[in-house]
């Protein structure tokens, strides 16, 4: 079970700060690569995460994407080359999944 923290309005970026999304490489592929299906586990999950991170590593807006995901404490998906577990570690969120996806693309 994940613990969620409420995000304050002041934590959210202004709309003009989100223009980086127009250059996002993930716009060119299926969202299914960046957001896991229910109960996905094991090698299939690792492969999907690896493939998504490869795209992130080539993305021109990886830095603002990463900053955004951390600022709003995005709970799901691959953002800025970070998996959910990567962000949990950075943000000090306890998740305790057995599957470690440590792999940095930036
Ligand atoms: S860094 Fe990854 S998730 Fe972020 S915009 Fe680029 S491709 Fe999409």
UniProtKB/TrEMBL annotation:
Chain positions recorded as [4Fe-4S] cluster binding sites: 26, 56, 59, 65
Cofactor note: Binds 1 [4Fe-4S] cluster per subunit. Following nitrosylation of the [4Fe-4S] cluster binds 1 [4Fe-8(NO)] cluster per subunit.
Cofactors (names): [4Fe-4S] cluster
Annotated ranges, domain 4Fe-4S Wbl-type: 25-89
InterPro entries: 4FE4S_WBL, Whib
GO CC annotation, single: cytoplasm
Keywords: 4Fe-4S, Cytoplasm, Disulfide bond, DNA-binding, Iron, Iron-sulfur, Metal-binding, Transcription, Transcription regulation
GO biological process, one term: negative regulation of DNA-templated transcription
Post-translational modification (record): Upon Fe-S cluster removal intramolecular disulfide bonds are formed. The Fe-S cluster can be nitrosylated by nitric oxide (NO).
Annotated localization: Cytoplasm
Chief location bin: cytoplasm
GO molecular function, one term: 4 iron, 4 sulfur cluster binding
Primary role: Acts as a transcriptional regulator. Probably redox-responsive. The apo- but not holo-form probably binds DNA.
Similarity section: Belongs to the WhiB family.
Protein name in the entry: Transcriptional regulator WhiB
Phylogenetic lineage: Bacteria, Bacillati, Actinomycetota, Actinomycetes, Mycobacteriales
Gene that this polypeptide is encoded by: whiB
């Amino acid at each position: 079970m994940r613990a969620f923290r409420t995000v304050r309005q002041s934590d959210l970026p202004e709309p003009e700060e989100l223009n980086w999304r127009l250059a996002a490489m993930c716009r060119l592929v299926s969202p299914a690569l960046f957001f896991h299906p229910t109960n996905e586990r094991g090698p299939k999950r690792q492969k999907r995460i690896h493939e998504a991170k490869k795209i992130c590593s080539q993305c021109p807006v990886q830095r603002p994407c990463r900053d955004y995901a951390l600022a709003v404490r995005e709970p799901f998906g691959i953002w800025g080359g970070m998996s959910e577990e990567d962000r949990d570690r950075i943000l000090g969120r306890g998740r305790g999944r057995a599957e470690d996806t440590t792999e940095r693309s930036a």
